[in-house]
Amino acid sequence: MPASQPVHSGCQRTVRHRRPSTEPTTSWGGEERVPDSHLQPIVCCLGQPVAGNPTQFMIERAFTAAGLDWRYLTLEVAPHDLAAAIAGMRALGFRGGNITIPHKVSVIEHLDGLSQAAELMGAVNCINREGDQLLGENTDGKGFVQSLREQTDPDGKQVVMFGAGGAARAIAVELGLAGADRITLVNRSEQRGRDLVDLLSTKVEVTAELVVWEGDYQIPEGTDLVINATSIGLGDLEARVPVDVDTLTTDTVVADVVFNPPQTRFLREASDCGCRTIDGLGMLVNQGVIGFHVWTDIDADAAVMREALEEYLEL
């Protein structure tokens, strides 16, 4: 062997030269670390169950349309694993995510701060990373109000809302913050309804009253906005919201949070009465648009997201 040929013991190693990066690198335990710009940003959805959740399909389509090499993961997390899952988000550098049932309340103790809306509602459905902190937001009501503003301004409006659960709570708080004049809650459970009325009256400072729901509810004269914030109609085209539709007027805007099917019986009956209507798809899309901007600081294409939802739901 020529003297100039080096001798190696064991297996030979092929050395590949790479182009030096123009970006700064940091060391971690003495090892060179990949620049952050080379890491694929990840957001996620945490819940149980999450099978059939359309958000991943919608958000990833929006990432592609915006030219972003981001990923959205749908992850099933049991309640006893939630703390570990949030710690994992921190450790793995996730940019944020969505929180769905049953974690919207229990996640709060694992976060570093809350938005005004999330604090008022006592529930979180969106997490954003700011530096080393994970901050909680609630976009449920914001998504609804954004859809509503395509039809009318909530400021000064007289509102009737059916339901007092999580969706109703989020929507009522955001309507109050947006300047609604009066919110009448119609709910079968008096205690749950009373709790929401007290929240609206004391924390949001909007006039609110409770009507216990018995039989077909008659819409009061002068009502500007009627909202079904219950699950009546979810997956059932003929499910009926107990309302006397003859008391609706052509001046009333009628909304339904149910997104599948988007044209519920309630909305069809309201449309037949000459009302303008808002379906639940718009609320879901706008929640996604808001979350997308929170994570990326980029405006998503709402039309692309709605098209993706309709494709996923085979509408």
Structural key phrases:
32% helix; globular; 2 domains; Rossmann fold; 9 helices; 315 residues; 6-stranded parallel beta sheet; alpha/beta; disordered N terminus; 6-stranded mixed beta sheet
Structure, described:
The structure is a single chain. With 315 residues, the chain is an alpha/beta fold. It is 32% helix and 20% strand. Strand 15, helix 7 and strand 16 form a beta-alpha-beta unit. Helix 1 packs antiparallel against helix 9, helix 5 packs parallel to helix 6 and helix 8 crosses helix 9.
Strand and helix map with partners:
Elements: E1 27-28, E2 31-32, E3 42-47, H1 55-65, E4 71-76, H2 82-92, E5 96-99, E6 113-114, H3 116-121, E7 126-130, E8 133-137, H4 140-149, E9 158-162, H5 166-177, E10 182-187, H6 190-204, E11 207-212, E12 217-218, E13 225-228, E14 243-244, E15 253-256, H7 265-272, E16 276-278, H8 280-296, H9 302-312
Parallel strand pairs: 3-4, 3-5, 6-8, 9-10, 9-13, 10-11, 12-14, 13-15, 15-16
Antiparallel strand pairs: 1-2, 5-7, 7-8
Helix pairs in contact: 1-9, 4-5, 4-8, 5-6, 8-9
